[in-house]
Design brief:
The protein is mainly alpha-helical and 240 residues long. The chain folds into 2 domains: 1-123, no CATH class; 153-240, Tetratricopeptide repeat domain (Serine Threonine Protein Phosphatase 5, Tetratricopeptide repeat), CATH 1.25.40. It has helices spanning 7-20, 25-34, 40-47, 54-57, 67-81, 88-104, 108-121, 126-138, 142-155, 160-172, 176-189, 194-206, 210-223, 228-236. Helix 1 packs across helix 5 (67-81), helix 8 packs parallel to helix 10 (160-172) and helix 12 packs antiparallel against helix 13 (210-223). The radius of gyration is 20 Å and the shape is globular. It starts with 6 loop residues before the first helix and ends with a helix.
Length: 240
Amino acid sequence: MQALGDHAGAFAAVNVALKLVPNFPPALDALKTIGTPKNAAQIRAALGRPVAPGECMIPVADIKLDPKSIDRVLQACTGLVNSPGGSADDRSLAFLQRGSMYRRLEKYDQALADFDQALRYDPNSASAHTGRGNALCHLGRFDESIAAHGEAIRLEPNNAMAYSNRGNAFDDKKDYEHAITDFDAAIKLDPRYATAFYNRANAKLNAGDKPGAIADYREAVALRPGFREAADMLKELGAK
């Protein structure tokens, strides 16, 4: 971006990169070359809304990102993965975060490729395994998805998100019994996990348990007021 004359944009991309991977050597070197925008207005224009690492680290994070934020993170992560240097952990994280952004854009083949790269640098990344499982699920490769989430659970037995993600794969495979079992495990690990209640409600509804589904949709809304998808399902089912 600096080569194209977009000084403020280059500063923004490096700033986001450093938020994602603090002290990443290539980003620090780039910052020395770029310098900083000349005034406060340029800085505000360059940075925009700060992007926290948690917004793109977890492949199934509940936080919504607008298209501009996704594009900003994609640019930062691409800059990181295309730069020499950095530790294996840093590079794994950059691929993991970029894969998560591709998943949000429904570019599942590209997401899968990035999660595979993340695992090349860090084979024990539970987040990369479960991210890979999510991409595989969207590609209709349910058994592979279930296996990937299972590896995440093996690495982190207390990872509620991995259980919930595997439950979604079972649900998409129409194996509702195993799906509900996994959502039960996720909720046991994190009783305030609204998304797991929502996912379990979907599985119960698919299995023909309408009262159980309504109870879980209600709990999802109670835990996260403004949970639109759960509220919409309650309306659709004629429940309050």
